[in-house]
UniProtKB/TrEMBL annotation:
Keywords: Cell cycle. It comes from Ridgeia piscesae. InterPro entries: Speedy, Speedy-Ringo_regulator. This is Speedy protein. GO terms for molecular function: protein kinase binding. Pfam families: Spy1 (PF11357).
């Protein structure tokens, strides 16, 4: 049986081997990339402009409600609670997940826990400079046996990327317009603190943060900068304010048109080559 070291040895090279995700910065997305996600109050099948082709999607209120219900799923909600610093699930990453669901053509039945975590991982691949943090998704999505299952999870990510036509870029403008559909929902209040933005130099890393994925069965990491345990308390389901009409399940339902267009200075640190690296 393969050991943790054996099974994870090549994960850092997995993307390169398969020509996978190429990172970009948030400023890259602000320019309004092709297939941007734009929300309108009118139904538009397709929008074309000179030199640009965009595909238009209809967003129904039941889809937004299904997504919000997914965020209230016990495991997903606890995961968001644990990420109090919003390092891997801030409001923009959550908006990207919804954009991926629409680009993939998911029905509301496919708004599932595993699809959420797969899409969130892809969003982190696209947006985040820090590789370590997103590995926390594995134990939440896959359970205690995540070490033996994460390769399959990465293949699911690849399939999602292919399903959305390799259009994993979602601009800030697009995210803002997704959030504007129901701006009062608690998930859109997940603002990442300034001190958790960008890459962290090795000498600035918290020596108590070994980088090992903790999951739902371990004590959350104590964030000294935020002076709190990773416990999400800035918004709760009680603060939800619905702006979408209750609508119906019929074609008369309210709709919205969307154009989807390190070397740490610590004694040891977990990395995804499957071992603790000691200095």
């Amino acid at each position: 049986m393969a050991t943790l070291t054996d099974s994870l040895e090549d994960i850092s090279n997995f993307n390169n081997k398969h020509g996978m995700i190429h990172k970009r910065t948030r400023r890259d997305s602000d320019s309004g990339a092709e297939n941007d996600l734009v929300v309108h109050s009118l139904k538009v099948k397709r929008v074309k402009s000179a030199g640009t082709r965009r595909q238009s999607f209809i967003v129904k209120s039941k889809e937004m409600k299904a997504y919000f219900r997914l965020l209230d799923d016990s495991v997903v909600f606890d995961f968001l609670n644990a990420d109090a610093c919003k390092r891997i699930s801030d409001k923009y990453l959550l908006a990207m997940v919804f954009a991926y669901f629409k680009r993939a053509g998911f029905s509301t039945k496919e708004f599932t826990r595993i699809n959420f975590f797969v899409a969130l991982y892809l969003a982190n691949d696209m947006e985040e400079d820090e590789e370590d943090y997103k590995y926390e998704i594995f134990p939440w999505a896959l359970g205690k046996g995540w070490r033996n299952k994460y390769i399959g999870f990465l293949h699911k990510r690849d399939k999602l990327w292919m399903k959305i036509g390799y259009r994993a870029v979602v601009s800030k403008k697009c995210c803002d317009e997704v959030m504007a559909i129901n701006a009062g929902h608690w998930c859109w209040q997940r603002e990442r603190p300034e001190h958790h933005t960008g890459a962290i130099r090795a000498y600035k890393r918290d020596p108590d943060d070994d980088g090992y994925p903790r999951g739902p069965d371990s004590t959350p990491w104590l964030c000294k900068q935020c002076s709190q345990y990773t416990e999400y308390d800035s918004a709760s389901p009680g603060s939800i304010s619905w702006y979408l009409s209750s609508g119906s399940e019929s074609s008369q339902d309210d709709t919205y048109t969307m154009n989807l267009s390190f070397v740490p200075q610590v004694n040891s640190r977990f990395n995804m080559e499957g071992m603790y690296v000691c200095w």
